């Protein structure tokens, strides 16, 4: 079964999927079931990982505070605490002996899933799930050879258990109040509670009705030092803060007044569900009217259980979409009339002077493009305000967008980087065909905001994007046309030229593109009932979920096979393979697994989620089943003068 799910088969000492979900044990903190040596190894692995991931000065306070809290959380003996801070400062980087020591713990029996469960509970203990903490958790999960799906299922189980406590006991409290004939208060509280639940919330504040019971349920889950604070109103508010204002998340946000020139700005659900991390998708143009037009390109997106799309400036995006359709149709018609058998993209992208026939219709698109360029930047700045206010709750968010949607994300991140307390909000940022500058200096400040991956998906043959920037300086570099030459562990360049023939394909081929950049899609969902809740010492609920919607990238005949060609081999300090199967590289979540250029061989053949050396990554995606049949036209083969004369 494990092989069918795309998970490497394991020995008895490794993660056992078949054992998950049926054990019912009394809750015991991890620090009480492992030895002092195990606690030491646990803290040391986290300390080394914190130093590897967050070396920057602006993350210094986070590093030190996180380690300090973890030391208290696990009760590390006083005499060895100085060693942890030495690891945090970079003295020592070999984690393998520590991993072996942890796996030898008799209570763990080689399965370190329990360690990840403890780390997740530690991360949400204060009601804030920092994006840096989640990246740390996913990195430690890879180091300990714990399958990512098990980590995500445990995150979901925390949400489910808390949600069940709130909803079930809230009804009991309402009945008790009814018996005491407090009708007015019941009505007021009920409206608040039902609005929260109906609005897609999990843990919204229910007007105080469920406060004592919610605190009790959360205390059983969080346990330890966090339990004492949960009985107060402040403790309830802290838990509720994870899921946004009144628990309504992004759907509860309403733009109170017009901001600048922005006429439309709202969030719509892509999926129904709740998660400790969420995803926001942003489209770059529209092809038809209606709210559904914003959702259509993302029908296959399944990066998390809770996903939204941004609905903004639909009037102008629709005008742009129609103009792009017209221009593209015109160019294709001209090519067909002249019996040009190859795609026009190679010649157009290399053209020094554009054909006069194309220039004559440029006015159709120049005006809507200019309007949308300005408005997308303003929308991005307003999105930054929304995220900084934590309208989505105090939990990580991944941003993904194409074309002008990617521009919205870019300006959102740049605006956030200027603000105080901008760290710990954004997990990953995925920009596809971004009409923004490719100069590395323009991207440097994004490292303060994004804690996981910054993905630049580009197409070298995107003639439409280059045409739109034809009046720019020759030194102008566009991210949607080339890689970002920036040495940072976050930066990941993916050349999509083999699967994206032009700018219009970003909307039409989104399913393939998502796979290529390492984002999960609905095609790869496996409904596996054996993967319910992760094995834990925590108490299970009476009404346990019988079937978990488990998302795991699988190898099927319908899957498109890619080859990932790594260009920065020389930067590695270890032996690296020239190529690897992108299908296997994407067998993990986008938030954890990136297309790792190192080609490191691990016991279960998984790839490192975040290379700790400060170098960017660049990948060329080649469609394997068509690579032999493609005869790309060399730019010199095009005679634009002959085309004009004809």
UniProtKB/TrEMBL annotation:
Region feature (Disordered): 593-616
Record has Transmembrane as a keyword: yes
Domain of life: Eukaryota
A UniProt-annotated Pfam family: DUF726
Subcellular location per the Swiss-Prot or TrEMBL entry: Membrane
Transmembrane feature ranges: 189-215, 221-248, 344-365
Any one of the GO CC terms: membrane
Keyword Transmembrane helix set for record: yes
Record InterPro entries: AB_hydrolase_fold, DUF726
Keywords: Membrane, Transmembrane, Transmembrane helix
Membrane topology: Multi-pass membrane protein
PANTHER family: TRANSMEMBRANE AND COILED-COIL DOMAIN-CONTAINING PROTEIN 4, TRANSMEMBRANE AND COILED-COIL DOMAIN-CONTAINING PROTEIN 4 TMCO4
Family as reported in the entry's similarity comment: Belongs to the TMCO4 family.
The name this protein goes by in its record: Transmembrane and coiled-coil domain-containing protein 4
Protein source organism: Caerostris darwini
Upper taxonomic lineage: Eukaryota, Metazoa, Ecdysozoa, Arthropoda, Chelicerata
């Amino acid at each position: 079964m494990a092989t069918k799910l795309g998970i490497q088969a394991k020995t008895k000492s490794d993660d056992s999927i078949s054992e998950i979900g049926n054990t019912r044990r009394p809750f015991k903190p991890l620090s009480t079931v492992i030895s002092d040596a195990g606690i030491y190894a646990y803290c040391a692995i986290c300390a080394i990982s914190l130093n590897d991931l967050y070396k920057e000065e602006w993350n210094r306070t986070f590093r030190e505070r996180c380690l300090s809290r973890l030391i208290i959380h696990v009760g590390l003996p006083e005499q060895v605490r100085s060693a942890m801070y030495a690891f945090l400062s970079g003295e020592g980087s070999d984690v393998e002996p520590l991993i072996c020591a942890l796996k030898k713990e008799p209570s763990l029996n080689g399965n370190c899933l329990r360690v990840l469960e403890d780390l997740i509970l530690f991360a949400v203990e204060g009601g804030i799930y920092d994006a840096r903490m989640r990246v740390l958790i996913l990195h430690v999960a890879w180091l300990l050879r714990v399958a990512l799906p098990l980590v995500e299922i445990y995150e979901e189980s925390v949400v489910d258990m808390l949600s069940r406590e709130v909803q079930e006991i809230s009804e009991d409290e309402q009945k008790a109040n009814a018996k005491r004939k407090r009708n007015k208060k019941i009505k007021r509280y009920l409206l608040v509670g039902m609005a929260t639940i109906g609005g897609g919330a999990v843990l919204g504040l229910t007007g105080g009705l469920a406060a004592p019971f919610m605190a009790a349920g959360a205390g059983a889950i969080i346990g330890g030092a966090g339990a004492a604070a949960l009985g107060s109103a402040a403790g309830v508010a802290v838990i509720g803060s994870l899921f946004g204002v009144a628990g309504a998340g992004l759907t509860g946000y309403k733009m109170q007044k017009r901001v600048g020139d922005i006429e439309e700005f709202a969030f719509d659900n892509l999926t129904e569900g709740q998660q400790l991390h969420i995803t926001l998708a942003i489209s770059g143009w529209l092809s038809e009217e209606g709210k559904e037009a914003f959702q259509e390109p993302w029908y296959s997106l399944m990066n998390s259980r809770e996903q939204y799309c941004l609905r903004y400036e639909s009037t102008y995006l629709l005008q742009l979409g129609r103009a792009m359709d017209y221009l593209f149709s015109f160019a294709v018609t001209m090519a067909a009339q002249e019996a040009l058998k190859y795609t026009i993209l190679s010649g157009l992208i290399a053209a020094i002077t554009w054909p006069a026939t194309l220039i004559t219709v440029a006015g159709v698109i120049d005006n809507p493009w200019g309007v949308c360029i300005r408005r997308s930047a303003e929308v991005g700045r307003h999105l930054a305000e929304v995220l900084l206010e934590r309208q989505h709750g105090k939990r990580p968010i991944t941003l993904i967008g194409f074309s002008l949607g990617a521009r919205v994300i870019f300006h959102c991140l740049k605006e956030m980087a200027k603000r105080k307390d901008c760290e710990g909000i954004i997990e990953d940022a995925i920009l596809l065909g971004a009409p923004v500058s490719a100069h590395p200096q323009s991207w440097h400040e994004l490292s303060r905001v994004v804690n996981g991956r910054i993905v630049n998906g580009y197409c070298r043959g995107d003639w439409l994007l280059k045409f739109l920037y034809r009046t720019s300086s020759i030194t102008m570099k566009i991210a949607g046309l080339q890689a970002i030459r920036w040495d940072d562990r976050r930066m990941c360049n993916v050349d999509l030229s083999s699967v994206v023939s032009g700018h219009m394909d970003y909307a039409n081929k989104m399913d393939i593109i998502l796979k290529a950049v390492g984002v999960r899609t609905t095609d790869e969902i496996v409904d596996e009932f054996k993967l319910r809740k992760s094995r834990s010492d925590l108490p299970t609920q009476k009404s346990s979920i019988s079937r978990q919607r488990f998302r795991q990238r699988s190898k099927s005949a319908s899957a498109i096979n890619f080859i990932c060609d790594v260009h920065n081999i020389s930067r590695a300090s270890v032996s690296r393979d020239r190529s690897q199967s992108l299908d296997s590289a994407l067998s993990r979540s986008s938030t954890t697994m990136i297309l790792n250029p190192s080609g490191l061989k691990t016991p279960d053949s998984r790839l490192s989620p975040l290379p700790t050396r400060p170098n960017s990554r660049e990948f060329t995606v080649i469609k394997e089943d068509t690579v032999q049949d493609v005869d790309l036209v060399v730019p010199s083969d095009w005679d634009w003068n002959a085309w004009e004369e004809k």
